[in-house]
Amino acid sequence: MVVTNPQTGDSGMSRARITIGFDGEAARGEMEVADLAPLLVAWADVLKAANQAVNGDRASARVVITATAPGSFLVNLGLDVGVLDQILGVIDAAASHQDRVVAANNLLDVLIKSGSLAAGVSLGVLGIVKRLRGRRPERTSRHADGSVTIELDGKELKLSPAAARLIEDPAFREALARFGERLSNAEGIDQTFVADQDGTRSWSIRRSEARSLRLPPPEEREPETMTTRRQVWLELVSTHFRGDYKWRFTDGDTTFTATIEDQEFLRKVENGDVSFSAADKLLVELEEEQEIGNEIRKLATRVVKVIRHVPGPKQMRLL
Questions:
Q1: What is the CATH number of domain 224-310?
Q2: pLDDT-derived band at 96, boundaries 50, 70, 90
Q3: Which helix (H) or strand (E) element contains residue 172?
């Protein structure tokens, strides 16, 4: 792992190296570039999204491929975090100044080994999201220093402030979910892993486990009903003179049905005082009722008042 101290004037960069490996039929000996490229891009997106979540606009990230040993299908990704402003207190407010300088190194630590289980096992953000399998923690406790304790499969896990921010960051989670989708579609790849310098695998995920990186379903929210009124010109498509008088209209873009609630207009219709033909225009006061929850659902469309009726042309004018 190579680290460049920004205080030495080396382009304001902190650098860390992460070794990515692939197992499977497609990774034996040689591998199609078209198969490998989407996975590498997905890895890069995850690292960049992690940097954005933790460092915000104060630092940019660049992910590059560096050479690896001949005869081995490992890929070294170099993570350069460029300091646009001093990265002080971004990763850990209690860290020493030297730790703050090596931001890229710390960022990878957050991803790989950011939390500790009661049994003393380190588990990074990648491992936590994998264990969550698209669920939310059973219990969450937030602390004054920004750290968070979650209960996961009956065990407590304490997350650093940076790890908690990553897990709750939508852009990072979406990038990780896309990575999982690309891995699940990678024919011939059984798993991908992160390797330490001594070759030990610090994190891995099999293709069959890729869906565990998916986003949790949206939280159920109590739906609310909203009613809006507006004046609009409508063109008559079809009429119904029985039952609840649901008529079909078009507003020029969409065709829909609506109930006529203007009693005076309905009496004229029943008495034969109003006749209709194709392409009649109505200026109406239209009321729309919607239910706003996890999704938007239209409940009803009503014409509460017919303001003006313009009959359509009876025949084509030739002169």
A1: 2.40.50.140
A2: very low
A3: helix 170-184
